[in-house]
Amino acid sequence: MRDSYQSILNKAKSRKKEYRKFLDRLKSQAPSDLDQITHTLHDQAFKEIDCLDCANCCRTTGPLLKSRDITQLSLQVRMKPSDFTVQYLRVDEDGDYVFRQMPCPFLAGDQLCRVYEYRPGACREYPHTQQRNIKKILGITFQNSQICPAVARVVEGLIEYYQG
């Protein structure tokens, strides 16, 4: 990971309580332009941050895998879904399938995803700041601000926009 990305994450970690408090307040206020502002900040952040230079999400946090994800991935690696599940997955505390260990077993040394075209839906949607109705996922946004430098940038931008 680039030093500049690590620096962004270090700042986010040092402001963790402030981020939580701000996002909780933002959720209760629910400004009408929240989606629009978040999407603009998302686009700006990804002009600066290249996922292939980071891959922190793939190294540190695993996606929830649904049945269709397991089916797609098992086909891609030429395994029966049951064998794939035994080899790669575990059931988490919420009863969901997640990878047995991190980093993701499909993350290559060059930080490319070996199953990119067949990656789980949760990976496709990450970091979720491009989705509609952001108010409903501000808790996830908070968690992701500690993992993804782009989301940390989005949160910083939201703080500046709504408190600045």
Concise overview:
This protein is mainly alpha-helical and 164 residues long. It has nine helices and two strands, in the order ααααααββααα.
Secondary-structure topology with pairs:
Blueprint (H helix, E strand, L loop, with lengths): L2 H12 L1 H14 L4 H15 L7 H5 L6 H10 L4 H8 E3 L5 E3 L21 H5 L12 H8 L3 H15 L1
Antiparallel strand pairs: 1-2
What features would you describe in this structure?
A two-stranded antiparallel sheet has the order 1-2. The protein is mainly alpha-helical and about 160 residues long. Helix 3 crosses helix 9. The model has no long low-confidence stretch (mean pLDDT about 95). The chain is built from nine helices and two strands; from the N terminus they run ααααααββααα. The protein folds into two domains: about 5-60 and about 125-164, no CATH class; about 65-125, no CATH class.
Q: Which stretches of 5+ consecutive residues score pLDDT under 50?
A: none
Shape: globular
Major sheet: arrangement of strands: 1-2
Oligomer: single chain
Mean pLDDT score: 96
Global Rg: 17 Å
In helices, the fraction of residues equals 55-70%
In sequence order, what are the helices and strands, one letter per element?
Answer: HHHHHHEEHHH
Count the beta strands.
2
Sheet with the most strands, sense and barrel status: 2 strands, antiparallel
The chain-level structural class is mainly alpha
How many distinct helices? 9
Number of domains: 2
- Approximately how much beta-strand content do the residues carry? under 5%
Determine the N-to-C terminus distance. Answer: 30 Å
